[in-house]
Fold this sequence. Notes:
The chain is mainly alpha-helical.
Amino acid sequence: xxxxxxxxxxxxxQTDVVVQSIREMLIDGRLLPGGRLPIEKxxxxxxxxxxxxxxxxxxxxxxxxxxxxxxxxxxxVTALDxxxxxxxxxxxxxxxxASGAHHLHSVRRMLETEAAALAALQIDGDALSAATExxxxxxxxxxxxxxxxxxxxxxxxAFHRIIAEAAGNPVLSALIDALGGRxxxxxxxxxxxxxxADETAHREHLSILAALTLGDPDRAxxxxxxxxxxxxxxxxxxxxxx
Length: 242
C-alpha cells in the first residue's frame, strides 16, 4: 500500500504528519474500516517519519477511536462507528464552563426534537415496551418518601437514548449521547433544587411516549421540545441569579 504524504503546515510535527497521512488514506480508500495498517518498518519511511512519531500518531488515532492495536497482530482501522468516533466530544463538552450550559442544552433540544419526530415514524414494539418500563420504574421511585434522584435521572437518560436510537440515524444518536454526561449533571442539579421537577419531567415523558405510540411525529417533536425547554428555562434562571 503506497502512502502519499499530505500537505501539512511546514512546522507540523511528525506526529501531525502521521495523523494527516492516515486520515487521507482513509478518505481516499487506501485504508478501509477493519483494514490492517502496513507494518511499522514499511509505513514509517513511506510517510517520512520516525518510528517513534508513527507510534505517537497511531496512539493519538487510537484515542480518537480510529485505530486499534491488537497485541501481536498489528494495528487495524476500527469499524469507524459514529458512537465511538464522537465519544471524545463528550469529554470536550464536560470541560465547558457552567455559564455556557444553556447553549449545550439548546443544541441538545434541537437534536432531540427531530430525533423524537423520526422515532415516531419507525419505533418498534420492543423499544416502546422498554421505554414504558423505564417510566414505570420512575413512577414507582417517585412514590417513595425520599426518591433517589440519580436513579430517576439515569432512567430519564435511558428513555431519551431509546428515542434517539429509534430515530434510525447513528450519527444523530451519537451526538445526543455525547451531550449526555454534562446535561445529566445539570438535570440532577435541577431535580434536587426544584421541588416537583422530577414529577413534572415524568408527566412530560408520558406525553412524549403517548405521541410515539400514536406514531405522530408532530406531537412527538412538540412534546419533546416543551419538555427540554423546562430544563433550559431553569438554567437561564439560575444564570441570572448566580
